[in-house]
Amino acid sequence: MEIANKIVKKKGKIAIIGLGYVGMPLAIAFAKKINVIGFDLNKKKIAQYQHGIDPTNEVGDDAIKKSTIEFTSDEKKLREASFIIVAVPTPINLDKTPDLFPVESASRIVGRNLRKDSIVVYESTVYPGVTEDICIPILEKESDMKCGKEFHVGYSPERINPGDEVHTLKNIVKIISSVGTESLNDIEKIYKLVIEAGVHKVSCIKVAEAAKVVENSQRDINIAFMNEIAIVFDKMQIDTHEVLTAMNTKWNSLGFFPGLVGGHCIGVDPYYFIYQAERLGYHSQIVLSGRKINDGMSDYIVNKIIKMMILANKKIKESKIAILGLTFKEDTPDIRNSKIIEIIEKLEVYGVRIQIADPVININELNESLKSKIVDFSAINNIDCLIVAVSHKDFKTLNFDKIESMFLKCDNKEKVIIDIRSILDKTVFRNKGYSYWNL
Which of 31, 68, 194, 422 has the smallest count of CB within 10 Å of its CB? Predict the structure, then answer.
């Protein structure tokens, strides 16, 4: 095949379908080397990109302004591309089953605009079999062409870690696969343009699909273990963070800590594995147990907050709580599947008044059902309880005086601090008599 050579010589184009936290960095990187079409159905997002605004904060406004990407929401533009990468989200339904609508919809769009001899590569996280059993039939139906003869399909799981300035796109080895071997060399040539760490070829698409689901399930299980021991150590009145810091002095310690598991990967991908395992007659034990523990942490933390406030002689109804951080992880505006939102919704049932401060959040992405107010950090005052929910850089520099100024004037033992991420100096606050708890 000559697709890669033509694209490298800028005699052809690639298209990225889905310009979110995965697609946008990919499009920016490729646009430095070749001609790129950036497609997204969200016209508002496309307009922002066209005006040099990055709502994801993954690449920054300057990178977008300088980029040569052709941003569009017109699917007919895809007919100009001979190499198409699908990077749409793959969420879950309310019953925790895979929601394949985005990837199916993207497949229909690509299929009806597919050129003969083109290559389509999926990056969306799915359970093994989705690309070949669901996506390819859609492409064939919409294009009226046959995969392997008139067009080719590959799979290369996205492995970007949003907000990570060290493990960036170019530094992460790219897993690549294809239906048959004819298109694999072209896929390798294209990705090697932007992936300095190189590529890892696997024998078939199902192996590549499985690798992504497993790597996130592994992290989920490890965090679940940390959360379980945190619950038990709390009953023993032992500081889990101190235990793990000591444990991590050993060379083979994995360095995991307890916490809330949200976002679009670790909190979602294991359910894709569980779903397919159940369909094949196997009831997941370890992966499902890990999910149950991590999904239950918001309830555990809310119960702890209420208990701490009662012990501090606080009247729960109408009490004033400030929450620092709403995103699913530090220093990223992404709020998808944020467990902090769950905590807020559960606390609101008690009639508390909640203020939220988050310096990096994209307010336009907030759900209208969120009743609590987003306020400027400086506006927080006269609170009964402070919850440090996300370890944004801005929060790591908080000192005692600044936190002291947020609280209602009362006895220190009536001032409650819930440090979910364990970023404050617990010794300082406990020595001052605060009611301090960390996960």
Answer: 68
